[in-house]
Amino acid sequence: MKKCKAQKLLATLLAASMVFSLTACGNNGTDSNTNTGTDTNTGSEANTGNETSGSNETADATEGEEATDNEGYAGPDWETIDAMSYDEKSDALYDYNLGEFNEYYQVAKEEVTDLDKRMALMAVAEAKLLESGVFQPVQSNGGNYAISRVVPRTGSTVLWGLDEYKWYTYLVTNELIRSEDRTELVAIWGESETADDWFTNAKAFLEEKGYTLSDTYNNEISYQLVTWDVIATSMTSDSYFISCTYSGLLEYDAVNQQQPALAESYEVSADGTTYTFHIRPGVKWVDQQGREIGEVTADDWVASMMHVADNDGELGYLMTTTDGCGIKNYDAWVNGELSDFSEVGVEAVDDYTLVYTLEAPFPAFASMMGYGCFAPLNRSFYKSQGGTFSAEGDEYTPGNYGTDPSHIAYCGPYLITNYTEDNVTSYSANPSYWNADAVNTKNINIYYNDGTDTLRAYNDTKDNVASGCGLNSSSLVQAQQDIPDGETETYFDLYSYTSATDGTTFCGWVNINRATWTNYDDTSVGVSAQTDEDKLRTREALSNQNFRLALAMAFDRGGFNATSVGEDLKLVSLRNSYVPGTFQSLENDTTVDINGESVTFKAGTYYGEVMQAQLDADGIPLKVWDPNADDGVGSGDGFDGWYNADNAVAFLDTAIAELEQVGVEVSAENPIYIDIPCGSFAEYYSKRANAYKQSIENVLGGKVIVNLVEFEDQTSYTYSYYRISNGNEANFDAAPGTSGWGPDYGDAQTYLDTIQPYGYMCKNIGLY
After folding, report:
1. What is the pLDDT of residue 737?
2. Number of H helices, E strands in the chain
3. Phi and psi torsions of 477, nearest 5°
4. What separation in angstroms does the CA of 617 have from each of 246, 268, 374, 597, 612?
């Protein structure tokens, strides 16, 4: 596996009663107060868009016509490609399928001075990416009904980093919060200029309405943790548990303003390449029992960078010039071109002065400070656990560091008081925390919920065992029937709200280079029923752009989503692009080239609108931006701009003609077989897999057959797609809505880097 593999993938390890997401590091951008219960994050209402059934309006759709000219189609040169090494094969297939996107994308990345032009060029490049059909955005977190005791917006809701999982600012009530009161609280949040104002106003409102505050937050989730070392993991399923045990240099507050944390202040050089942080004096490192083990100093970030480099396959991509901020000489160090780590761009000038030097300006650098790769590491404690650094001339080993909660050091708001695997993780407030007066929630309990009991989260929320939950299809029905003691209305009528969507984008992936037809870790599970001939025909079909687009447009994502959130909300969390359409907007009028024509976009134009302009110019019938959504603000969420049966058939007809030229017949009598993973252990997974199967087979007239490869437990299920380290371990042909990405920092690059050569999400398309 090459070094640049990025790491923030998200997997929908969603139990049948839940809609939780597994991120791989970085923030889901979820509403902090709504990461309640096991399902999804809950927050303010989201626009639902307009329901479109089977033939929603798409940009420049040409229904019933061939999508592209198929004359002279040859497909990949498999004889030559199969003789290549794995990385060479990946390079060749990447260039064949994604070369145009990468060409546009590298141009966008080179623009570091005009940030408006950079954004527009990124949007143009993503349009090319979506046109390739190698993957399809499906949904974000949120967008379901929920009930909760967590006061909305009392934690960071910024769309990147890990600050969402700090938890200490949460306000939790002993009573379920009524729907109308939640709406008023969100309005008060919107009117509050600072976090202090917001908390003062929120507490006053809660007292006026008769709520009482609890000092405990209880959540249920399906995450299974592998390591306690936040610097050496790429999985949100790990970082979720660890992030509240340390502080970062800077952190986002409850009104999403970045504030000093372990750095009291910082300056940026005039050329934008040097960041000088002034470390807060007197902050203590403690062990799990709260015993002091040292002071936080600038060297903790030098040690951290050494540890990042030793685990380069995890978070190192964020340090590189190609995939991240471009820490000076980081690439040279990990490639063995430097022998002196002091030449890498991180320096402890003294105990309280830390300097990062970049190869070139990187506008989003400060927004990266909330992520795990910039967490501090106490050098002496790490070494006491047997950890070593290759930068000090030793053969790298983490020793016992990160093996359990007693083998990490703490400088954050919480200490871990109990960890029982697949049961409960408990936290208590750290009395040595530098900002102890700001800790509203003194105790945290995270309960493991595997989803086999579809009503557990709901029942636990009713009983105040859990602070809240999302309502899945089963618990929604129950909540619409149950009436609390002393009330005349149901739980649903009194307390439900629609959770906000976030920056996480879950996708459907197409494996264009499948290398295994069983799980790589256990060849006795996940066994495909395909014959050798089937495998070759499927490979040829999935290498065809028009065939992939036919699959994407035949996928009824709304029906897929309805299996978990119900018909009423099936469109709310749908996302139509990888980077959310409203992720960025132009500050100034900006002109870019669209197919040879100079097009000027006005100040205030969103990312999604530029992307739509390129799709329209290319004649690709996808709708990724609706200017009328969200009360006229515009959005790329809340509608299905991909699903269109007529367009799907048109693309399939083109693909059939092209595949015929390379000797592959596709018909109802001789269909293409597509394997997808299906978690038979939980109703949630089974329903979603069957919804995908029915949609594809019905729309494409049986010319594509979807095989459900069943897994009897969650562990084996996730090892078919989520816990894979490279593309040749991916055991599927298509994986609809299984894993995705949440942003690490505030630039579109944080998404698009994952699908450039050696990008982390490329493993989901069978490459690198």
Report:
1. 85
2. 21, 25
3. -60, -45
4. 48, 40, 41, 10, 9
Residue pair 649/562 in contact by the 8 Å Cβ criterion:
no
How far CA 380 is from CA of 300, 619, 753, in Å, comes to 10, 60, 35
Residue 359 carries which DSSP code? S
CB 450 within 8 A of CB 15: yes
3-class secondary structure, 721: coil
Q: Write the DSSP symbol of residue 217.
A: E
Overall pTM > 0.90? no
Q: Which of 695, 753, 764, 757 is nearest to 723 (CA)?
A: 764
The answer to whether 571 and 640 have CB atoms below 8 angstroms apart is yes
Each residue's pLDDT tens digit, 59-85: 333 333 334 455 689 999 999 999 999
Strand segments (E) across 568-610: 590-594, 597-601
Q: What percent of the chain has pLDDT over 70?
A: 91
| 3-state SS record for 158-178 | CCCCCHHHCCCCCCEECCCCC
Please write the tens of the pLDDT for every residue from 327-360.
999 999 999 999 999 999 999 999 999 999 999 9
Beta strands per DSSP E along 132-273: 135-139, 145-148, 172-173, 213-214, 216-221, 250-252, 258-260, 263-268
pLDDT of residue 370: 87
Structure tokens at 577: 């692009």
pLDDT computed for residue 753 by the predictor: 93
Vertex 328 angle, CA 325 and 329, to 5°: 120
Q: Which residues pair with 425 in a beta bridge?
A: 419, 446
Helix ranges (DSSP H) in 349-497: 379-384, 456-462, 473-479, 491-495
